[in-house]
């Protein structure tokens, strides 16, 4: 990195090369599809390979992963996880956590603004499930390329062709299988690698998936003998795939229109090595990010980064506020003084960290695609840009369709000032969306969330941080639509509906009891504006 007379630093030539080594992705799935298991399996495979049999190294890596997982499992409301770095085959894979599970929240969606690719993880017995569909909607809206991993093939499940059909019919994503299972789900024999000249690998179970699955290549002649009828059936299916042209196509994959599909089983970690290879070979590295006006900022331009997540009080002892930043361009060096685009103020990065599970490590350098955590980030907000050198503003992260609504009231009227300040803060940080209306009055704002856990976070923080305990009364709305000033008076008086203003951006939202009521309103008022919001709803 060179520093010019005006103090601006520029990315060094190796920034572009480092960016090319990065793969930054997230796993989108429904609870129980196997996200935690797959994450462990990815780390296990990568560790086993990079440390080349060094037991010590392997042990350490597993420790890191397990910490992360323990935290996931024992998730309290003040805990988060951010990114897991996996070194594999001269690539750096950054797996960004999508806090999914039962505590689905807006954070889950926002992570998808910070990745270059997503793995859509399906349970072979269940296919596409609601949470996966919602997350997929966000990927589609942002044209994020999606790799599909059909998991739990070692258990009884559905036919592979039927699953492919479901993907194509329900979400319009053209599936292009990279491998093909031999044996039906539940009687899984092995995988044919379509991307490597149809080589066949027989599955070997490892007890509990504790160690790396052995991959045993078999010739087609041997396979025909050992696997019998199921082998012939798989070959027939493969032929069919060839005939219908279900072959990998880079252009449509990168445009988010087709999806390479892998079958496998995360628990016995079978097919996981091919998923790693697929990430390295096919997933796109970071590329020039467009600013608000659509102008691309090359990865080797001076530093720029996007705040995609804020977390308060990760560390109880410190009461800090942490911002997770995805590096978009340039080389990050700890100590750099950046500019906070929305205020123009300097932001010191002396205390930047990489966060792996509950362990915090100080990070000195980071490249496009990496995630850094900035502590004491009280002035930063989700969607903010930080930069060095020429000014850049990345477009804001969209807000998503809330499905849960509650009226907040201060329990202690004497603490109203703190109550107001706290609600303002929750809004600014994007913990929940805050809606107001003249009818309800300022003392009773409506909080809107995509997942109910967001309410718990607000309740907890209002009490702990602002000493302004609140009571939340849930209100019976399920659907939100964007409307405008002309339509608002028409819609507001209708039964089962109400129009409120979103504090953060002044948008008018119509809340409706449910989608049936919405249908009736749409029928009766075709002239009124009622636009869907992104995802959810
Ligand atoms: P998450 O909620 O998506 O993180 O799912 P988990 O990783 O916790 O997995 C949910 C359950 O499915 C656990 O009991 C796992 O052991 C099990 N599971 C995950 N992957 C597989 C697999 O490939 N085969 C089988 N048989 N079970 C699996």
Automatic annotation (TrEMBL):
TM segments?
A: none
Q: What is the annotated localization of this protein?
A: Cytoplasm
GO cellular component terms, alphabetically, are: cytosol
Residue span(s) of domain Tr-type G = 20-287
Q: What is its main location?
A: cytoplasm
Residues binding GTP? 97-101
One matching Pfam family, short form? RF3_C
Show the GO MF annotations.
Answer: GTP binding; GTPase activity; translation release factor activity, codon nonspecific; translation release factor activity, codon specific
User: InterPro entries of this UniProt entry?
Assistant: EF-G-like_DII (IPR053905), EFG_III/V (IPR035647), G_TR_CS (IPR031157), P-loop_NTPase (IPR027417), PrfC (IPR004548), RF3_C (IPR032090), RF3_dom_3_sf (IPR038467), Small_GTP-bd (IPR005225)
GO annotation, biological process:
regulation of translational termination
User: Which UniProt keywords are present, listed alphabetically?
Assistant: Cytoplasm, GTP-binding, Nucleotide-binding, Protein biosynthesis
Superkingdom, taxonomy of origin: Bacteria
UniProt family annotation: Belongs to the TRAFAC class translation factor GTPase superfamily. Classic translation factor GTPase family. PrfC subfamily.
What role does it play?
Increases the formation of ribosomal termination complexes and stimulates activities of RF-1 and RF-2. It binds guanine nucleotides and has strong preference for UGA stop codons. It may interact directly with the ribosome. The stimulation of RF-1 and RF-2 is significantly reduced by GTP and GDP, but not by GMP.
HAMAP family of this UniProt entry? Rel_fac_3
Name of the molecule in the record:
Peptide chain release factor 3
Give the organism, scientific name.
Murinocardiopsis flavida
């Amino acid at each position: 990195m060179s520093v010019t007379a005006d103090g601006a630093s520029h990315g060094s030539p190796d920034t572009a090369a480092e960016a090319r080594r990065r793969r930054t992705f997230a796993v989108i799935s429904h609870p129980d599809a196997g996200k935690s298991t797959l994450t462990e399996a990815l780390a296990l495979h990568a560790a086993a390979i990079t440390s080349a049999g060094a037991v010590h190294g392997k042990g350490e890596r597993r420790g890191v992963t397990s910490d992360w997982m323990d935290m996931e499992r024992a998730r309290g409301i003040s805990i988060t996880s951010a990114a897991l770095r996996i070194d594999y085959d001269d690539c750096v894979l950054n797996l960004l956590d999508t806090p999914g599970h039962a505590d689905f929240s807006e954070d889950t969606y926002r992570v998808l603004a910070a990745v270059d690719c997503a793995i859509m993880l399906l349970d072979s017995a269940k296919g596409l499930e609601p949470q996966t569909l919602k997350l997929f909607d966000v990927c589609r809206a942002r044209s994020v390329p999606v790799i599909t991993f059909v998991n739990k093939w070692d258990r009884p499940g559905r036919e592979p062709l039927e699953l492919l059909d479901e993907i194509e019919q329900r979400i319009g994503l053209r599936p292009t299988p990279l491998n093909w299972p031999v044996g039906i789900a539940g009687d899984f024999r092995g995988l044919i690698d379509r991307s490597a000249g149809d080589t066949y690998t027989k599955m070997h179970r490892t007890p509990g998936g504790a160690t790396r699955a052995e991959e045993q290549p078999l010739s087609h002649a041997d396979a025909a003998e050992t696997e019998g009828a199921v082998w012939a059936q798989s070959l027939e299916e493969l032929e069919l795939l060839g005939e219908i042209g279900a072959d990998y196509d880079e252009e449509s994959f990168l445009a988010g229109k087709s999806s390479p599909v892998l079958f496998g089983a995360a628990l016995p970690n079978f097919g996981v090595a091919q998923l790693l290879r697929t990430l390295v070979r096919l997933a796109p590295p970071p590329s020039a990010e467009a600013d608000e006006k659509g102008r691309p900022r090359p990865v080797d331009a001076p530093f720029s980064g996007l705040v995609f997540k804020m977390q308060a009080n990760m560390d109880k002892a410190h009461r800090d506020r942490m911002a997770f930043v995805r590096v978009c361009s340039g080389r990050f060096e700890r100590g750099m003084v950046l500019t906070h685009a929305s205020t123009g103020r300097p932001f010191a990065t002396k205390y930047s960290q990489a966060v792996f599970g509950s362990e915090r490590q100080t990070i000195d350098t980071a490249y496009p695609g990496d995630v850094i955590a900035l502590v004491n980030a009280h002035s930063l907000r989700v969607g903010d840009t930080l930069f060095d050198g020429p000014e850049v503003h990345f477009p804001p992260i969209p807000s998503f369709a809330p499905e849960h609504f509650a009226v907040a009231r201060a329990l202690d009227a004497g603490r109203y000032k703190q109550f107001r300040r706290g609600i303002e803060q929750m809004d600014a940080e994007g913990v929940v969306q805050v809606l107001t209306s003249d009818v309800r009055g300022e003392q009773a704002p409506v909080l809107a969330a995509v997942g109910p856990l967001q309410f718990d976070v607000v309740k907890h923080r209002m009490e702990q941080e602002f000493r302004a305990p609140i009571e939340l009364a849930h209100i019976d709305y399920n659907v939100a639509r964007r409307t405008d000033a002309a339509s608002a008076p028409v819609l507001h008086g209708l039964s089962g509906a109400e129009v409120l203003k979103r504090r953060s951006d002044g948008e008018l939202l119509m809340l409706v009891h449910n989608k049936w009521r919405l249908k009736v309103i749409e029928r009766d008022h075709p002239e009124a504006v009622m636009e869907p919001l992104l995802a959810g709803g």
